[in-house]
């Protein structure tokens, strides 16, 4: 492997520019004649647009255009799409309402765009936007999903009767009911999985330019998947054909899912640039990000789980209502269905599972995938109900889990997923040992003496990553395949460029991907450049989300590297008059095994490009591409233990210890993996303890700034005790499972289980703010 | 932010004259509330008159037992004053926990008091220390100064120049920060004055802004101990209620913070 190969803690190559302020983000790019877009956003949760008086705004300094939704649709710009078709259990397709990038007839949530101003400065654009007079007829609104389903509720879209988008199910209802009826014990739970605002450090931004001479568009944008953005902008929104549109996602400061989707703002910037003849930039301010980024989670769930007399699970019945917001964002439909209910078997052998999901429109910001996407919702439900059941049955929660662990692989669950490999006992044992689980009662007694309530909670999570086998997701309704592409370009001097369809927005791909080259050829990572995020450079790619860049993106690189290595060996064998099978490449040298014959790697590369002496019939050059389509999802899993102390006077929870034992399969860079776990747990603790988006009775988002939306901060978090256990994923060449979302998936139930253990009341809604914990203690 | 004209005043009179000339002027000191409000386009003064560089309004002077803090003195200066800490540690600890280091090096005591944000820390200390608020026109008793949320006795164009109080025998501040903003959800400043009277200023929790809790003051005057405030009644009806905590929770916090402040004061 060498100093920088697989398993090495190579420092992140990209950090030099990030920590010295030299990163180049979308808002850093400037163009000659650049103008600014300011959106006129609805102050109402639901209103009819009776008219728009633009005259005052148009007369203001620097204003070149005030544009509305009718002009947008009039120019042939298509409605936004949802890329995953879900059918209701009666076979009917989902009921999707129209979503225009600028509202035409109605606005449906606070922040919905009603018009846009293009002006020569940001200040002029914003002042003019304030002067656009939209005549609204305010309509009744509804912000929570349960109320939206009730008869008489305000209706958002004529296509979705009773606001219902689909009424979907998975698993066998009758068999699950029968299993529950025969159970020796049934545990019931009702939970709310709180709505979150992603809040990447860099807000969304777009800079669009239409070049009239070339009839060609360029879009800089904050995207996790610029090729998908180009495809959708071209094929569905009719902005421009793909070969006339270049999408660049330069340095992107975090995404967490929220930058997967193609939003109204980038469509409008492209359209407005052509219409006005100037480059158009838009950068969200933080309040716009709160209002108009896709939110995450927001599920209401009732569930029942049954156990036989030996405490084996008999059946699990789940009923979920998912709030999808005012419009269906790009992958929104898949989150509360195939990314959620397919993980309801957890780490447990459960013969009967049934889950029903009703997905509902409300007058709130669209909801889509956010770090974990469905899997945190599933894990929270499974691990809260297991802990609750253990308490009801008087069993050690660890023991109840062990009794039900899956131990034989592959394992087919009743909810589609076939787990390929895992070792749940080992991660649980490791977590309990690291947490000194056995010594907890002594620690609790000691805390009691100090007037503190101490509790401990477990979570044994599983998730499905490495999304995804294209044929499988296609059969479930996905509009795209989920393979990945890579191209390895070896230069004549032996340095290497890797072009990847993955996109790095914090993940450290420039380092991790380069380590594959080090591992393979013994070259320093400094000799490797990772190229990504530009549709003019990389032919195609599906982007980064769903913890897929290791398992899928790197597998494509490995496939391309296999081809490069094979060709290099052929050339070397020819040059050294040796058998191809005897050639080995290590430490930057190409050797004939068992002899002292060798060439430098650069000599073989140069030979490939001079073409002076190649094997008969071989094409010159050393450049190979590959597409990799996974054969299955990957299944990272692990066990988390959280220990808390609650102040009974104030309800403040202090996390005194947090242990994570994860199985991510093969790990390329342990330092980067630890960083992913730290960040994931921080977000999970954020969900469980701190964060929650709240729309009030007026339909206003009252948590629209950091003054009221509690982001986790360093002093909210303990030092994490991490360990990893490796069972290789059999489905991809490196055995990688993925690590990007695990922390956010596994941690919330561990924390809530710990707090409810501490306070002796199992009824606690996230976020477990001090006031809620205090109230739960008094209840 | 809308366009505005910035003026740096060199004296109090200079500042008053600048304000008189401005169409829709605002005094700015540390700007920790005003500038973010302007950036959000919620305030658009035509002129900003900066008080932070007026020498006569800066610094802490101690004359025997009497403390005078210039209105343009930053929180960091108050927090780090050894002389002040020796005779009134409570106000130094309060200043050291306002916002974050950047806020503490810009924000000033005069700005905080003039703005009278219901969740600001300093007003509770002014109440408990029975401070005098000195302006370019007069001296105002603290009990007459704070008149409601974001409301004070200041008249148009009136400038706070300093605050002055007698160092108490004991003092301490205990704050429960809002989890999101870290402003006070309940901040209680307790002071035992040298004449034996206890005063208790409460910020963050009251529906009408900062207030004195007379029940706790009586209890503490009789018996300066954490147990004494534990039995005090905090009227839930007077408390704020919002997504971070309802009035019952805030009432509880007032009591708990009062207890902790008394315990910290010793």
Notes on the protein architecture:
- The complex is a heterodimer of chains A (779) and B (266).
- The model of chain A has no long low-confidence stretch (mean pLDDT 97).
- In chain A, strands 3-5-1-12-9-10-11 form a seven-stranded mixed beta sheet. A five-stranded mixed beta sheet of chain A has the order 7-15-14-13-8, sandwiched between helices.
- Chain A is an alpha+beta fold and 779 residues long.
- In chain A, helix 15 (509-521) runs parallel beside helix 16 (549-575).
- In chain A, 28% of the residues lie in helices and 23% in strands.
- By secondary structure, chain B is an alpha+beta fold.
- Chain B is globular, with a radius of gyration of 18 Å.
- The model of chain B has no long low-confidence stretch (mean pLDDT 97).
- In chain B, a hairpin with a 7-residue loop joins strand 13 and strand 14 (211-212).
- In chain B, the strands form four sheets. Chain B has a five-stranded antiparallel beta sheet.
- At the A-B interface, helix 4 and helix 20 of A face helix 12 of B.
